[in-house]
Each structure stands twice: as C-alpha cells, then as structure tokens.
Amino acid sequence: MTKDQILTALPSLSHPELEAVQAMALSLLGGRVSNVSNEANTTRQTVFDALTAAISHPMPYSNMPAALAKHYDAAFPSLIYFFDKYFKGWDSNKITQTGFLRMIFSLMAHELKERGVAPSVGSLIYNLPRIYEIVDNAFPDYLRRNMGHMLLKVFSKKKVS
Q1: Which carries the bigger pLDDT value, residue 92 or residue 35?
Q2: Euclidean distance between CA atoms 93 and 95, whole angstroms
Q3: Do 20 and 42 share a structural domain?
Q4: Which of 15, 53, 93, 148 could form a disulfide with 86 if both were Cys (CB 3.0 to 4.6 A apart)?
C-alpha cells in the first residue's frame, strides 16, 4: 500500500480505527501513547504547545521529561479552572484559544525575565501556580472586576462587511 492510498483511506475509518492509527504513528515516531482521553489530551497538548511557542522553544508534548510532565499534570487542572473562571470562552475556537494562551504565556515569560530567570519550558511550567499573580500584575483589577472578556476580544473574529 502506498502513502497516498493510506491517506485516502483515513477519512473512511471509524473513530476507534483512527485512534489505533494515531497510536501506531506515535509509537513509530517514538512518542508515548497516553491513557488520557483524546479530548483531555488534546487540551493538554494545545496548552503545552502554546506554552512552548510563547518562548520559541518547540518541544513535542510526548517528549516532555517525566518529572516535568508530572509537575505539568499537577498544575493543569488549576490552570484550566483559572481560565474557565476568569476568561469564559477562552477555548471557544482555535484562534481565540491559541492567541489567548500565547499571550498569557508570553506575559509569564516576560515576568520571569524581569525577575532574572531565563524563560524555559521548565521555568514556565514550574511557575504555572503563579498564573493569577502574573495576570493580575499585567492587568490590574481585571480579574477582580471579572473583565477577562475584554482581553479575549482581541482574539475574536472580526466581522467583515
């Protein structure tokens, strides 16, 4: 079977069959196959990808060192709770989600630089629990006044007339 035949057949596969193809591809590429559901894994990957993009240090989510992954996994639920509470709709579409996340992680990287810490994937992950403080410092009173939606407006699609 050729590569083109395989790619042509993909749309006709069922969801479980596509998951099997994904698992095989990750295995062949040296990635790990997670037991986490696809939706949660996708959100974790999207957040992680935005974090690495904010400091221009791309790293595949599957190649994250185990100790760093453990810390990321521990901080992740609180991070999502923070975004959901103060920035309703942050994940409403891919453009908003990606732009918003990169902005937030760029703020974090900038704050670390000001403290004399070199922004790295590790330093950003270890500082995720400080996200409220960092965002509040960058946008005073936005969180307390529940004005997170104002920051999201920057990333909403503009209507063309």
Answers
A1: 92
A2: 6
A3: no
A4: 148
The two tokens of residue 53 are 């993009």
Residue 161, in any domain of the structure: no
Looking at residue 4, its amino acid is: D
- How distant is the alpha carbon of residue 97 from its chain centre? 8
Same domain, 63 and 139: yes
10 and 52 in one domain? no
| Half-sphere CA count of 64, side-chain side, radius 13 A | 22
Residue 1's Cα: distance from chain center in Å?
35
102-128 pLDDT, tens digit each: 999 999 999 999 999 999 999 999 999
Residue 92 has pLDDT above 90, yes or no: no
Does the pLDDT of residue 132 top 90, yes or no?
yes
Q: What's the whole-model pTM score?
A: 0.71
Give the pLDDT confidence score for residue 50 in this predicted structure. Answer: 93
Q: Are residues 65 and 109 in the same domain?
A: yes
